[in-house]
């Protein structure tokens, strides 16, 4: 009897002695099971329990040629360049936004806005408060409407809110705007990361996402060059409209955001199925590369069962705690311009320092306090942090079941948001100018974070040994998978149990990436 035929009429569960799956409960989803069996004894299910690409893949899989190693290499390169050209701009804008406020701190914002240094720190707190509140609703909305429309819609709102910043007169007004800005940005990174995982398997995805995030740091270079020029023009009194340099910096960012928003609204895909640069054969092959890892591509149906499993999975909590300690030192980069000015440099010189590539130099923080150059290099330790995207990517790749994946990644970002809300509290004005105590805490957090990575790896290694034993005994071949008839709006499509939207705890054929 096949796996799917084991769905009982009473409970709708797969038998527990089947080592491939665990607790696949369709009884709690009345619309999922249309009828128990078709006339030819093949299970009939609703399309909401299967991957959204299943109908397309199974319709065309027999019409395309074999995916050769050469074709896989060519297709991966094509997807890399076409998708990266689009999503790179998203990373660019994220970095741009995060650097705008820190750059404005030395461009006259304190002269134009009635705001103290502690209120300036609170701007980061309220930003991540908005971030925190919007994450889970954003995760649901992104899954339901698709990453394309969620990301582009967020960018449009983001630009509008950023454009209102120069009109603020008080710290409270600026806090309200930063809160709204945090809400619009919250789900963009998880949505983009999951979009990458729909095109690239677990071996390629982390490096592609790290490159995506790191390449976005070029925004810091561009922004600080613009800031430097604006500061010089402001000092010379040549800026048009009599506006301060920090206001013009925001206007430049708004224009860039809208210039990115328009082409993405047309070109950005939700999955390989609607990627405009791929032929039908290339779409099938791209989906096939993900299918063989049992990772899943996309499912727009929200599952509360997967939400429950997410928060009862110890692996989820390990990733959450790792993200929290990884992000506690994150606010250091936002304090960089003020720290550099505190070392005795001018605001224009502090902008120039941000153009240089970040350098690991924590030992230099112990340099004599009159050695300004050594201190500046030391502060750069936290400005390049690929660990954030790698951790988020790992959490997503180690989780299957689309709702579970979305909620896991969003909750990791919630942990990051909480950490970023706490982080500015370490940088109180009373610790000026060298912030010795805050730097001590940052060093401790940099030790805890990689330790958590080791713990996660050991946990997943142990689970993989159990799963490898099952695969060695039973094998993992699609031709042996149980056949299923999936009811869609366009008719019945035959799929198999590889197409089901199973979680990593249900699908024992899934091997956790290490």
UniProtKB/TrEMBL annotation:
GO molecular function, one term: transmembrane transporter activity
Pfam families associated with the record: MFS_1
Subcellular localization, as worded in the UniProt entry: Membrane
Membrane topology: Multi-pass membrane protein
Main location: membrane
Region (Disordered): 1-21
Name of the protein in question: Major facilitator superfamily (MFS) profile domain-containing protein
């Amino acid at each position: 009897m096949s796996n799917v035929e084991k769905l009982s009429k009473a409970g709708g569960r797969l038998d527990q002695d089947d080592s491939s799956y665990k607790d696949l409960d369709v009884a709690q989803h009345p619309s999922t099971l249309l009828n128990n069996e078709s006339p030819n004894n093949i299970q009939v299910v609703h399309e909401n329990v299967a991957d959204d690409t299943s109908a397309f893949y199974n319709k065309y899989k027999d019409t395309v040629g074999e995916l050769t190693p050469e074709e896989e290499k060519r297709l991966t390169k094509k997807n890399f360049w076409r998708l990266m050209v689009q999503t790179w701009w998203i990373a660019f804008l994220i970095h741009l936004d995060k650097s705008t406020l820190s750059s404005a701190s030395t461009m006259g914002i304190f002269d134009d806005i009635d705001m103290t240094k502690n209120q300036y720190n609170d701007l980061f707190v309220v930003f991540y408060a908005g971030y925190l509140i919007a994450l889970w609703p954003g995760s649901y909305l992104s899954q339901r409407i698709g990453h394309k429309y969620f990301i582009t819609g967020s960018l449009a709102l983001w630009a509008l809110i950023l454009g209102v910043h120069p009109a603020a007169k008080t710290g409270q007004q600026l806090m309200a705007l930063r809160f709204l800005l945090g809400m619009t940005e919250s789900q963009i990174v998880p949505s983009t990361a999951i979009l990458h995982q729909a095109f690239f398997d677990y071996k390629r995805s982390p490096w592609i996402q790290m490159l995506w995030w790191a390449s976005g740091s070029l925004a810091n270079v561009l922004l600080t060059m613009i800031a430097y020029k604006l500061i010089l023009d402001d000092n010379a009194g040549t800026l048009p409209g009599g506006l301060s340099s920090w206001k013009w910096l925001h206007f430049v960012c708004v224009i860039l955001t809208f210039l990115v928003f328009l082409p993405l609204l047309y070109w950005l895909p939700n999955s390989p199925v609607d990627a405009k640069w791929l032929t039908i054969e290339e779409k099938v092959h791209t989906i096939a590369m993900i299918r063989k890892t049992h990772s899943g591509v996309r499912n727009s149906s929200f599952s509360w069962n997967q939400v429950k499993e997410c928060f009862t999975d110890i692996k989820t909590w390990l990733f959450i705690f790792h993200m929290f300690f990884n992000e506690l030192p994150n606010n250091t980069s936002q304090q960089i311009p003020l720290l550099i000015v505190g070392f005795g440099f001018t605001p224009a010189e502090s902008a120039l320092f941000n153009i240089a590539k970040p350098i690991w130099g924590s030992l230099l923080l112990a340099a004599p306090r009159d050695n300004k150059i050594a201190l500046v290099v030391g502060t750069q330790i936290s400005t390049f942090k690929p660990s954030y995207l790698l951790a988020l990517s790992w959490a997503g790749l180690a989780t299957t079941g689309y709702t579970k994946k979305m909620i896991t990644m969003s909750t990791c970002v919630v942990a990051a948001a909480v950490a970023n809300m706490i982080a500015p509290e370490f940088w109180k004005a009373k610790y000026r100018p060298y912030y010795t105590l805050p730097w001590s805490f940052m060093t401790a957090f940099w030790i805890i974070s990689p330790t958590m990575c080791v713990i996660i790896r050991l946990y997943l290694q142990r689970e993989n040994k159990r799963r490898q034993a099952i695969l060695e005994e039973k094998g993992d071949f699609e031709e042996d998978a149980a056949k299923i008839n999936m009811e869609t709006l366009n008719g019945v499509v035959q799929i198999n149990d590889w197409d089901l939207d199973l979680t990593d705890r249900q699908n024992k054929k899934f091997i956790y990436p290490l």
